[in-house]
Design brief:
Membrane topology: Multi-pass membrane protein
Keywords: ATP-binding, Hydrolase, Magnesium, Membrane, Metal-binding, Nucleotide-binding, Translocase, Transmembrane, Transmembrane helix, Transport
Organism: Apostasia shenzhenica
Largest sheet: 9 strands, mixed
Helix content: 40-55%
Catalytic activity: ATP + H2O + phospholipidSide 1 = ADP + phosphate + phospholipidSide 2
Family: Belongs to the cation transport ATPase (P-type) (TC 3.A.3) family. Type IV subfamily.
Structural class: alpha+beta
Shape: globular
CATH class of the largest domain: Alpha Beta
Number of strands: 35
CATH topology of the largest domain: Calcium-transporting ATPase, cytoplasmic domain N
Distance between the termini: 97 Å
CATH architecture of the largest domain: 3-Layer(aba) Sandwich
Length: about 1100
């Protein structure tokens, strides 16, 4: 087979022998995996893999209009007006089609232009990405082509700081040992560098001459959205090599600290993992919007009632006795007295088109515009929510939920990185049953203050405080650990810290200048601690780590020790532990393991029970001080046992099906009979302003729940530190750490354990619920707090007990759930959201908070140190928990007040306008005669009353931001929904009814004997124009009077809208012929004066009556 053929050549241009050989090997694709032939497009042609061009647009030139209109008409209001517009083209319509078509067209035009603009920006972004250059192997040289021309199986070269154009199989690197460093910030927000290692078999394919000879076959999983898993095999020269995520370079990641790499394309375009993860956040609708739907349905009911009254009236009124109507001869069916039922039905449809303005067509567009500006100009640019240290402003990722922020009653918060800073510092430790570290944590200070005790915070001369390390105990510093009771176990402790990790060192190989790139702040803190204790990790290769050990053999002496890393059993949320199998220079095989105390203690050998017991007490002590703990353990492995285990490990690693599950099962075989070394205690300090923020939110009537994976003692003390719990509260604690449950766990019967825990939880819930009801009945009763751990919560969320849990929780001011999983976080949130029908907000900063964030009405992500998963799944993003005060009490409350006023005002102004037409119907024999000119009706909502309501939605506020935060009790108005109740709607409806009556009848009665300048009596055009003038001026000034604060923008919009009406009528009356209208342009000025005199007379009467009410 020739090796120089270009993979970009069409298959038909290849030699027949090459085609036959390659195409003969192509097999039908197995549904469970795909087969890829590297560097051979002809062989891959039969499979028809997708191209690398991506499109994130919603529309194209062909689909924009039909799809865009379909999206718009999914709204009930738009569909309703489409039906009205169609109905207005029929003979039964009393109005010209333009009356309904113009406002509908304007609304659709604005919406479609917005959609087109957003989609155009997506298109420009897609073009920039698709046309980015990449070097592809053609023959024996690299040729630059755009990303969009890449195909599965191509060999590409990616240079330093460039992005990977597709999901690639890592083949070779300019770095030694076939490694490269990548940054995944575009994928998950993490800026820590990650190491990837190519298979040793492919290291040679770094140059184009050698790479052109590569003809490997890849069998791998089908495209999926799992970012952290990959299973596959590379078959090369009849040798099968297992592939793992370590050989996968994902599209969107960038290459760092590496000159260039060579890779083979595996997944392209929309089949790449990043594109398969680019799904939208679940669509959420605010509570106010759902209530608006009910108001619209009420308006439909009102419309039907008005039309029914008119239809019945028409059927009754039509009679031949009214001879002047000419009903004796041949007449239209709508006015035929011989069939009054048909008359009533046709009149019904006529009146539907006539009264269609009762439904505000521009309401949705106005609300969208208001919300969009609120987000982009107010929330996103609020300097009080800008975090200067990280240069992070607040970000509204959706504009659908602004007003929901003003009605939140329950907040569900993560602890680490949300209430705390996620800046981990090694603070204390326990080694061989001995505690080291004399510092005092924030939590301990708080406990001492509550008990009236003084704390001695004197630090020794050997105390060290730097990033990741804040430790004070001379017994371990500068080699003093050699004098401890058991220095050998101290060495194992330090070596476990220095070896069992996936940290990457960067910079100079000196303790002062080196920096550590770690997957989490905890891991970086542990490696920093090892360095400070004299075990300096400074170099990593794919197969080893190098540690400079000081004071081991002799005080003051250092030596570099290379530990061969044989296997890494990685940490995940299920395993809750990480292990490393390493070989010492002397051939000693050791497995080091670190993880949560619950999983480590389950795997300990039945030795050193005294140390195990003492260490458990130390863990509880550390937890009470608010520290994060990890257990460290090890075991020695014989060469025979390791070889047998490693064969199983390689077999599991090569599996294409259920690889992760098989790897976990194999890990269980070696992670047993461990010997406990000790435990670490890391401090994560509270964020600034958290206690005062929680206190303020509590005064606002908001109940805060903390959902954390930490131990109960840690969670309770954090709750104390941030004012969530205080000594004046009655605490209900439901824990699985009871003697009865422990005895059941010691017996090891899983069914019995489950039964015992469930019975215990049921008894606790019943007892606490009864006690809570008694305390709440007394006026002097204390506030209540509930603390429950994950095991008990699992049973409390059972169908038989969840109602009890919900009742008890709702009676508590604070709830702390500890040791909970991400799924339990979401379940607790959904329990309150769906069970109590309360508006909920979830806030978190990590990937484990995503399900909770998406389950709540409003999701808030913290732009922290755990990546951007939470932010990408959220509705709003802030940098600090304390910014919730401004987000909820200021922006949320203002948005709620403004939108309530906007909606009720829309309801009022449209009902007022429509009712004047309704009253006119009674004087026209219910015939469906229109009162207003078609253009008046068309432009009423879109010009003459549009701008003022938008200005109110943007600038109206009852109190300033400072007052909103100083008196948080004001927020309770939103929780109780004080401004959008049916009572409020009824009051506005009452204003509409009596003001429309006053405007209509005073205008009609006062102009009954009036004459225009030509001596003619006022006709329909004169009277309706005067009435319309009164309506426009009345509703605009009524809005001005309803404002809590009036700015120049209010005056400009209100008086500008009124002026726009007079300018319009001046021009409009001037261009009409005498045949069309009874008024000429020459008589317009005195006519306007007459209108205004009538208006002020009506206005004075109306508001005298209003204030009397």
């Amino acid at each position: 087979m020739p090796s120089s053929g270009s993979p970009f050549l069409d298959g038909s241009l290849r030699q027949n022998t090459v085609q036959t050989v390659r195409l003969g090997r192509v097999q039908p694709q197995h549904p469970g995996h795909r087969t890829i032939y590297c560097n051979d497009r002809a062989a891959n042609l039969a499979v028809r893999f997708k191209g690398n061009s991506v499109s994130t647009t919603k529309y194209n030139v062909v689909t924009f209009l039909p799809k865009g209109l379909f999206e718009q008409f999914r709204r009930v209001a738009n569909l309703y007006f489409l039906m009205i517009s169609i109905l207005s083209t029929t003979p039964i319509s009393p109005v010209h089609p333009i009356t309904n078509v113009v406002p509908l067209s304007l609304v659709l035009l604005v919406s479609l232009v917005k959609e087109a603009f957003e989609d155009w920006k997506r298109l420009q972004n897609d073009k920039a990405i698709n046309n980015a250059p990449i070097e592809v192997l053609q023959g024996q040289q690299w040729e630059t082509v755009p990303w969009k021309k890449l195909q599965v199986g191509d060999i590409v070269r990616v240079k330093h700081d460039n992005f990977f154009p597709a999901d690639l199989l890592f083949l070779a690197s300019t770095n030694p040992d076939g490694v490269c460093y990548i940054e995944t910030s575009n994928l998950d927000g993490e800026t820590n560098l990650k190491i990837r290692k190519a298979l040793e078999r492919t290291w040679d394919y770094i140059h184009p001459e050698k790479a052109s000879e590569f003809r490997g076959e890849i069998q791998c999983e089908q495209p999926n959205n799992s970012l952290y898993t990959f299973t596959g095999n590379l078959i090369i020269d009849k040798q099968t090599l297992p592939l793992s995520p370590n050989q996968l370079l994902l599209r969107g990641c960038s290459l760092r600290n590496t000159e260039y790499i060579v890779g083979a394309v595996i997944f392209t375009g929309h089949e790449t993992k990043v594109m398969m993860n680019s799904m939208n956040v679940p669509s959420k609708r605010s509570t106010l919007e759902r209530k608006l739907d009910k108001l619209i349905l009420t308006l439909f009911g009102g419309l039907f009632f008005m039309c029914l009254v008119g239809a019945i009236g028409s059927g009754v009124f039509i009679n031949r006795k009214y001879f002047y109507l000419g009903l004796d001869g041949h007449v239209e069916r709508q006015f035929d007295p011989r069939n009054k039922f048909v008359v009533a039905i046709l009149t019904m449809f006529t009146l539907i088109t006539l009264y269609s303005t009762i439904i505000p067509i521009s309401l949705y567009v106005s609300i969208e515009m208001i919300k969009f500006i609120q987000c982009t100009q107010f929330i996103n640019k609020d300097l009080l929510m800008y975090h200067a240290e990280s240069d992070t402003p607040a970000l509204a990722r959706t504009s659908n939920l602004n007003e929901e922020l003003g009605q939140v009653e329950y907040i569900f918060s993560d602890k680490t990185g949300t209430l705390t800073r996620n800046l981990m510092e090694f603070f204390k430790c326990s080694i061989g049953g001995e505690i080291y570290g004399t510092g005092v944590t924030e939590i301990e200070r708080g406990i001492a203050q509550r008990n009236g005790l003084k704390v001695d915070e004197a630090r020794s001369a050997t105390a060290v405080h730097e990033k990741g390390f804040n430790f004070d105990d001379p017994r371990l510093m500068s080699g003093a650990w050699r004098n401890e009771r058991d220095p050998e176990i101290c060495k194992e402790f330090f070596r476990c810290l220095a070896v069992c990790h996936t940290v990457l060192p960067e910079g100079d190989e000196s303790p002062e200048k080196i920096t550590y790139q770690a997957a989490s702040p905890d891991e970086a803190a542990l490696v920093t601690a090892a360095k400070k204790f004299g075990f300096f990790f400074y170099r990593r290769t794919p197969t080893s780590v190098v540690v400079r050990e000081s004071n081991v053999e002799k005080m003051g002496k250092s030596q570099d020790v290379t530990y061969e890393i044989l296997n890494i059993l990685e940490f995940n949320s299920t395993r809750k532990r990480q292990s490393v199998v390493c070989r010492y220079p002397n051939g000693r095989l050791v497995l080091y393991c670190k993880g949560a105390d619950t999983v480590i203690y389950e795997r300990l050998a039945d030795v050193n029970n005294n140390i195990n017991k003492i260490s458990r007490e130390h863990l509880e002590q550390f937890g009470s001080a608010g520290l994060r703990t990890l257990c460290l353990a090890y075991r020695e492995v014989s060469s025979e046992d390791y070889e047998k285990w490693n064969d199983k490990f390689i077999q599991a690693k090569s599996s294409l099906r259920d690889r992760e599950k098989k790897l976990d099962e194999v890990a269980e075989l070696i992670e047993k009979n461990l010997i406990l070394i000790g435990c670490t205690a890391i401090e994560d300090k509270l964020q600034e302003g958290v206690p005062s923020c929680i206190e303020t939110l509590s005064k606002a009537g908001i109940k805060i729940w903390v959902l954390t994976g930490d131990k109960m003692e840690t969670a309770i003390n954090i709750a104390y530190a941030c004012n969530l719990i205080n000594n004046g509260m009655k605490q209900f604690i439901i824990s699985s750490e009871t003697d009865t449950i422990r005895e059941a766990e010691d017996r090891g019967d899983l069914v019995e354990i489950s039964r015992v825990i469930k019975d215990s939880v049921k008894q606790d819930l019943d007892r606490y619920l009864e006690e809570a009801e008694q305390l709440l009945q007394s006026s002097w009763g204390p506030k209540l707090a509930l603390v429950i751990d994950g095991k008990c919560l699992m049973h409390a969320l059972d169908l038989a007990l969840r109602i009890r849990l919900l009742k008890l929780s709702l009676n508590c001011s604070s709830v702390v759930c500890c040791r909970v999983s991400p799924l339990q976080k979401a379940q607790v949130t959904s329990l309150v959201k769906n069970g109590a029908r309360k508006i909920t907000l979830s806030i978190g900063d990590g990937a484990n908070d995503v399900s909770m964030i998406q389950a709540a009405h409003v999701g808030v992500g913290i732009s922290g140190l755990e990546g951007m998963q939470a932010v990408m799944a959220s509705d709003f993003a802030i940098a600090q928990f304390c910014f919730l005060t401004d987000l909820l009490l200021v922006h949320g409350r203002w948005s709620y007040l403004r939108l309530c006023k906007v909606i009720t005002y829309f309801f009022y102004k449209n009902l007022t306008f429509t009712l004047t037409q309704f009253w006119f119907t009674f004087q026209t024999g219910f015939s469906g005669q229109r009162f207003y000119d078609d253009w008046f009706q068309s432009l009423y909502n879109v010009i003459f009353t549009a701008l003022p309501v938008i200005i109110v939605g943007l600038f109206d506020k009852d109190v300033s931001a400072l007052i909103s935060k100083r008196y948080p009790e004001l927020y309770k108005e939103g929780i109780r929904n004080m401004f959008f109740k049916w009572k409020v709607v009824a009051i506005w409806a009452f204003f509409s009814i009596y003001q429309s009556l006053v405007i209509y009848y005073f205008t009609v009665i006062s102009s009954r004997n009036g004459h225009n300048s030509s001596g003619k009596t006022f006709g329909l055009w004169d009277v309706s124009t005067m009435a319309f003038t009164c309506v426009v001026v009345t509703v605009n000034l009524r809005l001005l009077m309803a404002c809590n604060s009036i700015t120049r923008w209010h005056h400009i919009s209100v008086w500008g809208s009124i002026l726009a009406w007079f300018i319009f009528i001046f021009i409009y009356s001037g261009i009409m012929t005498p045949h069309d209208r009874q008024v000429s342009c020459s008589s317009f000025l005195p006519f306007c004066i007459l209108c205004l005199s009538h208006y002020f007379f009506c206005f004075r009467k109306m508001y005298t009556l209003q204030y009397m009410c």
